[in-house]
Structure to design on (161 residues):
């Protein structure tokens, strides 16, 4: 049922009837698979992808790279756990390269994010340094092209039978 996960990741609004038809399965099998994936923590949630640039809302997004000192026995897990519990944090990734963690933050302004980095992230015990990259334009997010004029993307089709 890996194909089921692929279909749901592309369009979580597909009905079980549509999914069953696409997978040549019964609706009951599809429903059971989805429930099992949710219970096992494979499916962690369902989310709409919003083009905030088209909404009259102050919104800023930043990628913050962190160089951290891992703790003995716990590695990077301890500091990642502390960071991911902060409500401003959208995502935390362990990465390779010059930095250890990549953190995605949403805020109402660039200044709000900068103050968060200065007051909350950079003052944490294990954080050695930070580099903040503000997202100026999102061209594509989660496989979706954000400017509809660029390309019509069928996965954003809202019609559900």
């Amino acid at each position: 049922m890996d194909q089921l996960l692929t279909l749901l990741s592309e369009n979580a609004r597909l009905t079980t009837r549509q999914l069953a038809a696409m997978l040549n399965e019964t609706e009951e099998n599809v429903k059971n698979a989805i429930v099992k994936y949710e219970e096992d923590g494979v499916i962690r949630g369902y989310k709409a992808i919003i083009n905030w640039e088209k909404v009259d809302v102050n919104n800023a997004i930043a990628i913050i790279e962190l160089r951290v000192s891992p703790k003995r026995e716990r590695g990077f897990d301890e500091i990642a756990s502390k960071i991911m519990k902060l409500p401003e944090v959208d995502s935390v990734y362990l990465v390779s390269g010059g930095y250890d963690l990549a953190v995605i933050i949403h805020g109402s302004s660039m200044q709000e994010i900068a103050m968060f980095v200065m007051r909350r992230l950079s003052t944490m015990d294990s954080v050695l340094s930070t580099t903040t990259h503000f997202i100026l334009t999102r061209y594509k997010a989660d496989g979706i092209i954000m400017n509809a004029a660029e390309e019509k993307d069928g996965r954003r089709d809202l019609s559900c039978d």
User: Anything to note?
Assistant: The radius of gyration is 19 Å. The longest strand covers residues 60-68.
